[in-house]
Amino acid sequence: MTSPSFSKNLSETVSGSRWEKIGFKKRSGVLIPLFSVYSQDSFGTGDLGDLKRVIDWAKSTSNSIIQLLPMNEVGGSFCPYDAVSSFALEPFYISLNEFKGASVKKQAGRIPAGAVHIDYRLRVEKIEQLWEIYLSSDLSEALDFEDFQRKNSYWLQDFALFKVLKEDYSGKPWYEWPDKFSRREKGVLREFWQENIERTTFQMWLQWVLFKQFKAAGNYAVENGILIKGDLPVLVSRDSADVWSHPEFFKLGFAAGAPPDMYCAKGQRWGMPTYDWDKIAGDGYCYLKEKLRYAGEFYDILRIDHVVGLFRIWSIPVERPLEEQGLGGVFDPLDEGLWNEHGRRMLNVLAQNTRMLLCAEDLGVIPRCCTDALLEFGIPGNDVQRWVKDWNGRHDFLPAGEYRNLAVTMLSTHDTTSWNAWWKYEAGTVDKGLFVRKCAGRGIDFIAVSARLFDPDFSFHGRLRWKREIDSVDKMLWELGKRKEDVGDFIELYENTFGEKEKLWNLLGCPGTMTEDAGPDLLERVTRFILSSPAVFCINSVVDYLSLGGVFPGDPYQYRINTPGTVSPENWSLRLPLSLEKLASHPVNRKIRAIITDSGRA
Asked: Which of 21, 212, 257, 332 could form a disulfide with 326 if both were Cys (CB 3.0 to 4.6 A apart)?
């Protein structure tokens, strides 16, 4: 349980009623991308029928929260954070097994044994089967379907039109369609709807099926004492039904991203347009309220992605070269004095218009106003173990007891390597691209200096591991040939990365000589470590949990969900190496359950 004073403080925040609903208790949970699981009934990837099996597994391991990645319909990159709608769900998640008596060709959807990644080409085949099922369905007296359309009229018809038009124009983005469609001439759209009534109705039918199946899974979670945590991306794809329907709500001359930092040398350019909040406010925030209302149909807890973007967001002019990534951007609003008021106003709109408990992704460089507001609103932030450090004093990892109470702690995220891969390849390293840029800016010969500072035998995947003999700031400065007062940023990099593995090894109380590979024993120690923290929630990825049982063979670096700043078939396609049926009886479950039970979070 949480302390009485902490519970009292939470109950007095804007989020107090949500906390009372789910209970003032420390919980453990698991992040499971639905696309990563599969069963004997699956067609190419996990579906909403499989979510019930995931609920069974979570319960068996004493986890009481299942966190999903955004379930919204994806575009060609299959990135759930670049969705084609803030409302519509991904039809690949429809369970064909739910259609009793339907002629479903499941065999075509079998996944080859040993495949690490999903074959998204099966999505087309599944939609074709759903079309056949739809044509054989009698909707003439489907009052529930009519009710669904009426309740979701804010977005549903526009989405259906968007999908059919996109098919007619070979997948081109809406801003490349003929003007009469891109500019949404009402008479033209009305005529197009009538001419394509079967196809637009099919798109709405898909969303109705998804709604029913997701609600059924949610009810099953309630029956089993499991909370479902959803994810609300702060942005939406430029080529989306949202932007096409409401272009006035977006600043189409800018692309959102993140500024450069010590982990990403050029920053990031995500490509999605930023919001024109004044226009959204002028409409009474209806767009935001409707998003929250629909998400509330499925989730008990909602993660606000990139919450700092509600205070200020990194905006890159669209004409900047793509290879510059996040370089050349500015914060919007430009005036730092406006950030606090703006962010609090947006948080208040979110908190006042949902019954879900809000959580926030507050990673990266976060202004104090954001941190203070989350605490005041009773909204947990994120504490990722590898980054929870005393950055300016001890330059060391924080003991578990010094973690934030109001936080969701975890070993890794969907945008990072797994913990095992971090330990092997990233702990004790600096980003090569960042170091190259810093050297260029000071007239330092990177090639010569890097040979003296870094160990090539332990530098992989764009990371540079410090040589053991560079064991002081003075030695680093000697090799750089610079004075301390001229290279403060180099010193900061060094102090916060040199000897990371040894520091954490000692903090965890590991016996013997430090090992380069993690292994189940070390992973168990660090898992117990964060579960013992005062953080109200501890939610670990399914990859980290299953690695406790050696489920993932070979190099741990290959088992990541996404590599930020890249577009690759290996992003958003990671597949577990065993089915949900086999997972249900795997010995690792007993270990996970024991660790969580020992932590008091069961």
From this structure: 257
CA angle 574, 575, 580 (to 5 degrees): 145
Angstrom distance (rounded) from CA 312 to CA 51? 35
Q: What is the pTM of this model?
A: 0.96
Does 371 or 566 have the greater pLDDT score? 371
Q: What is the pLDDT of residues 247-279, one digit of tens each?
A: 999 999 999 998 887 667 788 899 999 999 999
Whole-number pLDDT of residue 107:
44
Which two three-digit tokens encode residue 254? 């800018």
- The dihedral through the CA atoms of 270, 276, 277, 283 has a sign that is negative
Using DSSP bridges, classify how beta strands 301-304 and 357-360 pair: parallel, antiparallel or unpaired: parallel
For residue 440, what are the CA distances in angstroms to 445, 449, 481, 569?
Answer: 8, 12, 14, 33
3-state secondary structure of 173: coil
Question: What is the CA 212 to chain-centroid distance, rounded?
Answer: 24
* Beta bridge partner(s), residue 331: 314
Strand partners, 381: 407
List Cα–Cα distances, 300 to 54, 358, 359, in angstroms: 16, 9, 11
Kindly state the tokens that stand for 424.
Answer: 């092997």
Residue 79: name the closest of 199, 194, 239 by CA: 239
**Residue 146's CB: how many other CB atoms inside 10 A?**
12
Q: What is the pLDDT of residues 71-100, one digit of tens each?
A: 999 988 899 999 999 999 999 999 999 887
